[in-house]
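SUBJECT: protein chain
CONTENTS: sequence, structure tokens:
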Amino acid sequence: MLDLPGQSLTAEDKEILEHPLTGGLIYFTRNFEDHQQITELTREIRMAVKKPLLLAVDQEGGRVQRFRKVFSELPAMASILERAEGDMALAKKYCRAIAELMALEIQSVGIDISFAPVADINNISEVIGDRGFAKNKSDVVALVASFCQGMRDAGMATTGKHFPGHGSVKEDSHIALPVDQRPAVEVLATDYWVFEQLAQQNVLDAVMPAHVIYSAFDDLPAGFSKVWIEQKLRTELAFSGAVFSDDLTMEGAVKCGSPTERAQLAMAAGCDMALICNNRDASIEVLDNYKGDTVMSPAILKMIMQQAKYNGLNHCQSSQRWQELRQILDSFNDH
């Protein structure tokens, strides 16, 4: 899964997206001017690329929301339980409605998925912080499950991140390689426990591993680790959904070699799709040098088959369902 530098499709972009190894595209804020432009860009991509292509964005809410302006302003997830003053039933209602609202708006401009929800505990992590739903692990499970239900209400696949939990290490894996030095029993009983519960509830269609080393388990970050992906996720949790690497150009991935070596290692560890973002040279290097299967995994294909139907953001926002959901968001903001 690659990205674009601008707000329109260049000849080089088209060539890169048509490459046999390219299976997805992720949008960033730089790609967005307004809803008409992003809809037209998506339409142009679909027409230009004659193969299945998964289109994604990070539209979590709070400080991680790539599309704004006429899109609904979504709250930081940590604020939901606080605003509900600890009323879990009300917080779950807010989560489900906010998730469905987000998903409907993203789909209306032709984008398949938002990489959400964050299932990390809101503990000491600088980069997670209020992106996490709560500090208490049971509250995280309850709220994440409700958020997943809201996404599925709209027909959008869910992606839990960052397995097995990024919330209990302080460093930001975008600029450092965090090492979680806690004993295995502590990792398993807290952060991993959240994903264990979510897997049992079958609310996650995909998972994104963390660029974090859990030293009690492996000396590789989780996204490159067969211990975490094959043994823990696939075997112990019996997870059969898609596994997306986190961005392989992040500092937390750099120790694992060149961009191509990182992609090879992530895929060999069990990832179904490797993300290479914000570095066009790295993208081209991987496309030129990656040695591996170009067959898309059934889990990714299933997500693509749920492809978003464009109806336009204006049409979406004039629907009765959108207006009902927007009323819930407005009541949350007024609470």
In short: The chain has one domain: 11-334. The chain has 14 helices and eleven strands. The chain has a mean pLDDT of 95.
